[in-house]
Design brief:
By secondary structure, the protein is mainly beta. The chain is built from no helices and 25 strands. It has one domain: Neuraminidase (6 Propeller). It is 0% helix and 54% strand. A hairpin with a 5-residue loop joins β21 and β22.
Amino acid sequence: MGAESARAELVLDARAGLGEGPLWDARSSALLWVDIMAGLVHRFDPATGTDVTLDVGQPVGAVVPRAAGGYALAIRDGFAVIDADGSPMRIVARVDDDRPELRMNDGACDSRGRFWAGTMHLHEVPGAGALYRLAPDGNVETMLQDVTVSNGIAWSPDDTVMYYADTATQGIDAFDYDAESGAISNRRRVATIEDGAGSPDGLVVDEEGCIWVALWEGWAVRRYSPDGALQRVVNVPAARVTKPAFGGPALDELYITSAAPDAADAEQPHAGGIFRVRPGVRGLPANAYAG
């Protein structure tokens, strides 16, 4: 029997160049997301259809809530915090700011409020990036090296497994995860995306422990079981699908960001938009940065 399929529908015709990093902020009942190279943090309210932006002045790969208020960001120069009204932005920790050819990409917070985010070369030079972990006290540790395109980061519901995608490897990997120390070990492959189906981008885990991964140039989001079985496909009317996130008051809606093609494409007039589907399963609440 093949995987079940569904289709996501457009909810915001954002026309983003590189829409990424959606995350449901329960405090404001809004979807946070970023347009990376434009340096914009967005806050989309599905109830009203309004979408407001904060211009952070440099590429921004990820946004997460901050426990003390406002947001924490993974920006080109490292990690930063910003108030919800956009002022002021303060650098918490610089990362590779002497290497302008790198930028931060996808990120997420673990259950203890640590902010994980990785880097990539602007021209995707193999192995040029790394995965970093920002502690609440502002200390940064390098968790992985030789990363090409650091992408999806999420944890199992029981907090014992961390999932990760370096897009260039064409797969989703798992690590044993120690929530107390934040250590990762025993890297292994969970699922490999077959040739012609796109490449793994951002990912999220649902309350049943299954992994939802966006497929760049794959027109879809897929759901995999923890043992790597393909269970469901959500078709998206855009080729460059970047990341899914569970949202809505009950976390029973799946929001999906996308990026624009290099040239106008009549087959995907709403590429760069935000899409949504009701997947029949709930997600997990997003963690906030504790610093």
